[in-house]
Amino acid sequence: MTMAAAAVDPGPSAIVSLFWIAAAAVAAPLLSRLLRGLIPDVVLLLVLGVVLGPHAAALAGTDGGVDLLSELGLGMLFLLAGYELDPKLLGGKPGRTAWLTWLAGLVLALLLVWLAAPDAGFTALIAVAIALSSTALGTLLPIVKEDGVLDQPLGRAVLAHGAVGELGPVLAISILLTGHNLGASLVVLLLFATAAAVLAWVPQRILTRRPGAERLIAALATGTVQLPVRLVFLLLLILMTVAEVFELDVVLGAFAAGLILRRLVAETHPGIQDSLETIGYGVLIPIFFVTSGMGIDPATVAAEPVMWALFVLAIGFARGSTVWFSERFVPHGANLEYPHERVQLALYAATGLPIIVAVTQVAVRGELITEDMASTLVAAGATTVLLFPLAAKWVRGRAPDTEIPG
User: Fold this and answer.
1) CA-based nearest residue to 154, from 394, 335, 363
2) CATH class of 77-283+302-398
């Protein structure tokens, strides 16, 4: 009995895992600062996750509720991305151009994947193509803010292409990777959109018709209650639950929660964003990135360096080249003026990670791709977060001073 018990290694407990994850969350920004920001905090979180995870030191795991905290971190990441998004960017000619650009990138990625693996099933091909054509808007926002371009035309273009590059893949996952046929998936998506619209309309109606509700929330916004934050957390979980009940990916619910929240409180309670960023970027989102790093098997990536490099190039080509081409040759009224800005936009738009993690999780659960391929895809996504923003900063540094705003 003793030998049998010893043979079963339960792994680190949840509290021990969280200790190491918290240590990584503290160490990552300090290391990034020490390296003068050349390696983003997000990449270091992933690298530390690899080191701590079961494929390396095995100091931390995802059992005992750590995986739930990681999913909440993913939800907060997409909620904040949805909150930052101005819905006007999704409409008008620039918005339509961004949508068509993303669709062109998806088709190009599908063609590349089919050429590489012509015998694979269509669903597996589309899963990898969705991953290759995504943009990590939630990951990009802190990087773009730090680069000082968020309030410039380049920043607005990044937000437009980033929003579509995040929302488009989320919708594609919900329609194409849920196991339903196309018609059933569209019906389910319509039902979710209806539920989200009701959830947006009801509180707005209450706040408009009942001024006392606004005063009550304001009165309970500080101290030990923090009611607005609790309401936001409830909204997030409601929409993630609705998405799960409809067998959609929970990131769709989180993104919708961010869009609804912006409409409800962005003007009346601007301070709520600071509270959400404190909870998200301070606690939950680092947990998501560290645990995502734990899923990367470095031995697998090292054994297939060509596949890893090809994935990085495919992401840059499928997403980056289509964004550059549309910005250069498709007039939409807000095209970037300078060549270096268009190159920067292409590099930023080709930066992907959270969607890649979400897609690979769905694809592995559905046995569409192997865990080894998922590891390599996530590693490639992490590489884009490291290299592409760094390259964009280098391009900006080489541009003439007369072409740089400010």
Assistant:
1) 335
2) mainly alpha
- The enclosing H or E element of 251 equals helix 250-265
d(CA 184, CA 192) in angstroms, rounded, equals: 12
Residue whose entry in the numeric block shows the structure tokens 């904040």: 80
Given a cut of 70, is residue 144 above it in pLDDT?
A: yes
Task: Give the residue from 168, 169, 107, 102 showing the smallest Cα distance to 323.
Answer: 102
Question: CA 50 to CA 35: how far, in whole Å?
Answer: 20
Q: Specify burial of residue 395 (Cβ count, 10 A radius: 0-12, 13-18, 19+).
A: middle
Q: How sure is the predictor about 279, in pLDDT bands with cuts at 50, 70 and 90?
A: very high
CA 42, CA 382: separation in Å to the nearest integer? 8
Could you tell me which of 369, 316, 384 has the C-alpha nearest to residue 105?
Answer: 316
Q: Which residue has the tokens 């490099």?
A: 309
In angstroms, the CA 300 to CA 58 distance is 16
Side-chain-side CA neighbours of 397 within 13 Å: the count stands at 7
pLDDT tens-digit map of 16-63: 999 999 999 999 999 999 988 778 888 899 899 999 999 999 999 999
Number of other residues whose CB lies within 10 A of the CB of residue 193: 12
Query: What's the rounded Cα separation, in Å, for the pair 29 and 12?
Result: 25
Token couple for 9: 């290694």
209 pLDDT more than 90: no
Query: Residue 207 — pLDDT band, cuts 50, 70, 90?
Result: confident
Burial 114-146 (b: 16+ CB within 10 A, else e): beeeeebeeebbbbbbbbbbbbbbbbbbbbbee
Q: In terms of Cα–Cα distance, which of 311, 2, 321 is closest to 132?
A: 311
**Do 312 and 384 contact (CB within 8 A), yes or no?**
yes
Percent of the chain with pLDDT over 90: 36
* Cβ atoms 109, 314 nearer than 8 A: yes
Cα gap 190→241, rounded to integer Å: 16
**Across 208-232, average pLDDT:** 83
